[in-house]
Automatic annotation (TrEMBL):
Pfam families: SET (PF00856). This is SET domain-containing protein. PANTHER family: HISTONE-LYSINE N-METHYLTRANSFERASE ATXR2, SET DOMAIN-CONTAINING PROTEIN. PROSITE patterns: SET. It comes from Bremia lactucae. Residues 118-325 form the SET domain. GO terms for molecular function: methyltransferase activity. It comes from the Eukaryota. Signal peptide: none annotated.
Length: 356
């Protein structure tokens, strides 16, 4: 274990990051991973318990076979749209907070802060219509899919609530009481608005595979630094170099024989150890308003984080604004890009350009 800790410390030093920021902390977490009986994998028992408390208690299919109603719902989302799983997690969290607090205002407060429109209104426009098709007809296709999906989800929720009631985990409530008290949340309208919320506010994210970052860190070490490399890391480095040699994955597309000298390492593991692609919703950033002359910008990094930076001097009490679009356009082009956000920008820059 001491050897392993030394390897992590070495990598963190080479990457110039603190332990909390380092990609390589995942290797340490991998030693403690645990499974739920349904097959879900967690990095630790703490992570598993947190997921159970936040949503998994109501979303667990309870077996890897996924033969329960919730399992059928989850399988349905895999062949239709996985964004339905995100909406399901939100609804499950609202219900679990209500079960814990008996306070619906508190349970749904974090959700109600967002601007929400039904999914079919967010993702459709007249530009998508087939010849002779109306916008309502086109939206009905998505509305029908959401209704079908929600019916499966609600059936799974009811089954899992009954299971939790049998386990004594509803804090003195019954399944019927929870369903009645949460009727507004357990509706197609609310479910579709949650999906619309994600469509309007989420961002695409890519997180590097740890081996990709590891390969970069190891390839950048100097001869002097290699002498300080812990034995376990030296063995990992040798294994990765052997893998790269066998698969001839070189970043410059050169022949393998050009890389026999260890001072000229140029291998890449990106083709085999690809990153994770997904979406993220940053609740704080999502509440920031738009300006075509923003005083802040957002940087999304490949470790899954988002950082807000000032790009202008900001006075005390001044609102922090970002741009939702490319601002290197004229006012008419910018307004066209902002149509999907369903507002007309009236920032000082737009007003001045309209007058010109």
């Amino acid at each position: 274990m001491a050897d392993f800790e030394a390897a992590i410390a070495f990598l963190q030093k080479e990457g110039g990051k603190s332990p909390e920021e380092s990609y390589f902390s995942v290797f340490k977490l991998a030693e403690h991973q645990v499974h739920c009986p349904c097959g879900e994998l967690y990095c630790s028992e703490t992570c598993k318990q947190a997921a159970y408390a936040q949503h998994h208690a109501l979303l667990c299919p309870r077996s890897e076979a996924r033969e329960t109603a919730m399992g059928l719902f989850l399988n349905h989302t895999l062949v239709t749209n996985e964004i339905f799983q995100l909406a399901a997690k939100v609804v499950a969290k609202v219900l679990l907070v209500y079960i814990a607090t008996h306070d619906m205002a508190q349970a749904r407060g974090a959700v109600d802060m967002f601007c929400k429109l039904p999914w079919w209104e967010v993702i459709t426009s007249e530009d998508d219509l087939e010849e002779g098709e109306t916008l309502d007809q086109y939206r009905d296709k998505f509305r029908s899919l959401v209704c079908q999906t929600f019916d499966q989800f609600r059936t799974g929720l009811q089954e899992n609530l009954a299971h939790l009631e049998g386990q004594g985990e509803l804090r003195g409530l019954t399944t019927d009481v929870v369903l009645d008290s949460c009727a507004d949340v357990l509706s197609v309208d609310f479910f579709s608005q949650i999906i619309g919320m994600f469509e309007m506010n989420n961002v695409s994210m890519e997180i590097d595979h740890p081996f990709h970052a590891l390969g970069e860190a190891l390839s950048e070490t100097s001869l002097e630094e290699k002498k300080e490399m812990p034995p376990v890391l030296a063995r990992v480095k040798a294994a990765l170099e052997k893998y790269a040699e066998e698969h001839k994955h070189y970043c410059c597309g050169e022949d393998a024989h050009d890389h026999e000298n260890e001072n000229n390492e140029c291998y890449t593991l990106g083709e085999d150890f690809v990153g994770v692609e997904g979406t993220a919703l940053f609740s704080g950033i999502c509440t920031m308003n738009h300006s075509c002359d923003p005083n802040c910008t957002v940087l999304y990094t490949k470790d899954g984080a988002a950082h807000v930076f000032a790009v202008q001097d900001i006075s005390e009490g001044e609102e922090l604004c970002i741009s939702y679009i490319d601002v290197d356009q004229n006012v008419n082009e910018r307004q066209a890009c902002l149509r999907e956000y369903l507002f007309v920008c009236r920032c000082s820059r737009c007003e001045e350009e309209r007058k010109a």
